[in-house]
Amino acid sequence: MRYILLLILHITLLATDYDCIVVGSSPFSLFEALYQYHSGNRVMILEEAAECGGAWKGINVCGIMHADLGCHQIGHDTTLKAFLEKYAGCKIVSMDHPNQAFDSTKSPNGWYFSRGCYELIENLLKLISATDITLLNNTRADNVSIDANQKIATIQTKNGSYTTKKVIVTPMVSINVQPANQPQNYGKSKHYHLYMLIQDPTTPRFSYHGGVVSGASRMMNLSHFVGLVGTGRQLIVVQTYNEQYLSSAQTFLDGLKKSNLVDKGAYILETQSYIYESGAFHQGLIHNMGGQGIVEVLQTGHFQSLSTYIPKWQMVLKPYQDALRTP
Ligand SMILES: Cc1cc2nc3c(=O)[nH]c(=O)nc-3n(C[C@H](O)[C@H](O)[C@H](O)COP(=O)(O)OP(=O)(O)OC[C@H]3O[C@@H](n4cnc5c(N)ncnc54)[C@H](O)[C@@H]3O)c2cc1C
């Protein structure tokens, strides 16, 4: 009897609030959270922003809902395409001809989501809602303290702390690892975007393009993805090299006209800039703090890196429609 009581006490002391806490909500983090949940774990997601998706979220700009945050290019990987169609319910189209299905011979810029990256995040959030996963937006994970002996971690937020057996982060998450025995230098990177809502009644002439004009690294015409085709207006986003170019809308529009990428008579209706800040997780700290096996870092360098995890994820994830029907 005494042993049973001791065992219960031991289990109680070691009980954690969650089996797994995922910090951040890029597609990598949301898929991994679903994978952990469907593997039988109690899962929490902490996201400091109001919206989920990280660099792949949809934002409201120039009065248009769910526009891509910046410019994206995924490429031609058909295994990844098939995975997103089956497990995230995405409709995939040609990036170069968004009103057509993807055909690798006719789409040098690869494939994309029919409603932009918002489509992927929206569908993943529907899958999350069909589970018991706890998702807290507007909640920054400030610190993670590792107890290497008990093999648990405690995550602190401004509203409380949560214990867990496993913490999953991504390289662009910024979080302090405790106990800190060395400087934790999390330089944030800024990514600059200028949105231009223009009057141009012609059919959009590109979806994804290189810079064209000095100061622009790449651009996307988001009109197809946000449903503006046929309205006489087009939404273009330019990723700029730095902050100073965020006031260069007229120069960018003139460059687009010169390259025949918009109509010669096009003019600007509205502009809005958006600066995205990404962090930099110091992966070496996990080793220093004895956090191996407790803190896992997903490798997220490019969107295509999702492919690395497909064999693991598809062992437990259900196809999209089935997952929505049966939690
Ligand atoms: C602007 C931009 C454009 C990109 N374009 C492309 C592209 O075209 N093609 C491509 O293949 N790859 C692209 N990438 C690469 C992209 O980084 C990866 O595809 C992927 O989004 C990285 O995922 P991540 O989780 O590491 O970072 P992110 O996508 O930045 O997500 C990190 C998330 O964690 C949250 N977060 C951070 N710290 C905390 C904390 N302490 N507590 C709670 N939440 C936290 C952030 O708010 C954010 O939502 C782009 C990246 C950026 C920044």
Given as residue ranges, the uncertain stretches (5+ residues, pLDDT < 50) are none
In CATH, the homologous superfamily of the largest domain goes by the name FAD/NAD(P)-binding domain
The CA-CA distance between the termini, in Å, is: 39 Å
Reported CATH architecture of the largest domain: 3-Layer(bba) Sandwich
Helices and strands, in N-to-C order? HEHEEEHEEHEEEEEEEEHEHEHEHH
Q: Which fold name is given in CATH as the topology of the largest domain?
A: FAD/NAD(P)-binding domain
What percentage of residues falls in helices of 4 or more residues? 10-25%
CATH class annotation of the largest domain: Alpha Beta
**Estimated radius of gyration:** 22 Å
Coarse structural class = alpha/beta
Q: Main beta sheet, described?
A: 8 strands, mixed
Task: Describe the global form.
Answer: globular
- Average the pLDDT over all residues and give the rounded result: 93
Q: Give the number of domains.
A: 2
Q: What amount of the residues lies in strands?
A: 25-35%
Bound molecules: flavin-adenine dinucleotide
Q: Specify the number of helices.
A: 9
Number of strands: 17
List keywords for this structure.
single chain; 327 residues; alpha/beta; FAD/NAD(P)-binding domain; Alpha-Beta Plaits; 2 domains; 8-stranded mixed sheet; 5-stranded antiparallel sheet; 9 helices; 17 strands; 25% helix; 29% strand; binds flavin-adenine dinucleotide
